[in-house]
Amino acid sequence: MSMAAIERVELHDDLSRHLIHLQVERRLATRTLAIYLEAFERLQRFADAAPVALREVQPQHVRRWAGKLHSQGLASRSIALVLSAWRGFYRWLGRDGLVALNPVEGVRAPKAAKPLPKALSVDQAVALAEQHDDAELPALAARDQCIVELLYGCGLRVGELIGLDVRASAEAAGWIDASDATAHVLGKGSKRRSVPVGAPALKALHDWLASRDTLVAIDQAALFVNQRGTRLTASQLRARLRRGALQAGLPTHVHPHMLRHSFASHLLQSSGDLRAVQELLGHANITTTQVYTKLDFGHLSKVYDAAHPRAKKKSTPNRSP
Asked: Which residues are catalytic?
């Protein structure tokens, strides 16, 4: 942004001087200056409409204007940027003793609604678990299928899964006891938990262990290894999962946590037992697990819309006999 561009904007002298200060003394980037300019134009319009002098703006004005920005559809992050620009402006005025208080201090943007975690449908999850690539090295295909079965069948985090060792030991972060059909993992906060392992995952584990020796050295403790025989990394796992999803023809980008979300939402749809899902996921607080009740409600809404005779409006109005 050039100095001429700043001068062409019809702003109060205070705002114009502050913008020049940001450009010349703070040396802000052109794009950043454009964001500040837009924020100051909003402030000028609000003050003119109030009407109130810029140096006499009070916290109640700012809160009302932030509410208006929200009602106009501006995202919470964008409102936060606007308020940050205004806060800096009034802080700058305050250093010169031109305002008695900063009316933007303590005013925060509305909290953004947290998006619901994305989950696969049951059919999509099964398709991913059962997909086979005949061109793939058999050991890698067996490994990848076992990974999907454990992520979806046990709801493991990616770190918990790649931390599994072949056998239990004092040094092991986690392991699977096939005889007991249980996965023992080290979760967040170094908290251990045990999760049941279903028959499909146990079968996939058996198949992978039968092929694992073709990739790994005898002394390698990791359950899941890459082609070099070392412990599989999170980025390698994500890449293999994306590849498998494409092979299965899934229409969405699949990542490990999506399988954990799918595990939780499908289990909740079937059981309705929120406490059990909390324990299986290893959530310290049940409020973290409650997000899946929203996913479950979304599923129920779709069932209602598709099946209930009162869910859909008739395309043509009823006619009197």
From this structure: 157, 188, 257, 260, 283, 292
Q: Report domain extents, the chain.
A: 3-95, 122-305
State residue 182 phi and psi, 5-degree precision: -140, 135
Strand ranges inside 82-233, DSSP E: 175-177, 182-186, 192-196
d(CA 194, CA 196): 7
Q: Regarding beta strands 192-196 and 175-177, do their DSSP bridges make them parallel or antiparallel, or are they unpaired?
A: unpaired
Contact 266, 121 (CB under 8 A): no
pTM: 0.59
- Gap between the Cα atoms of 223 and 37, Å rounded: 56
CB hemisphere CA count around 266 (13 angstroms): 19
pLDDT at 117: 63
3-state secondary structure of 89: helix
Residue with structure tokens 């069948």? 153
Fold of 3-95: DNA polymerase; domain 1 (1.10.150)
Question: What does the DSSP 8-state code read for residue 190?
Answer: G
Q: What is the pLDDT of residues 263-317, one digit of tens each?
A: 888 887 777 787 888 888 888 887 777 777 665 555 545 544 565 555 554 444 4
Other C-beta atoms lying within 10 Å of the C-beta of residue 170:
4
For residues 41 and 64, what is the distance between their CA atoms, to the nearest angstrom? 16
Cα–Cα distance measured from residue 19 to residue 208, given in angstroms and rounded to the nearest whole number:
63
Backbone angles phi, psi at 252, to 5 degrees: -135, 155
Domain 122-305 = CATH 1.10.443.10: yes
Q: Give Cα separations from 252 to 245, 246, 301 (angstroms).
A: 8, 9, 21
Strand order in the sheet with 182-186: 175-177, 182-186, 192-196
The helix/strand/coil state of 296 is helix
Look-up of token digits 């392991």: 175
Q: Are both 3-95 and 122-305 of the same fold?
A: no
**How far is 291 from 283, CA to CA, in rounded Å?**
12
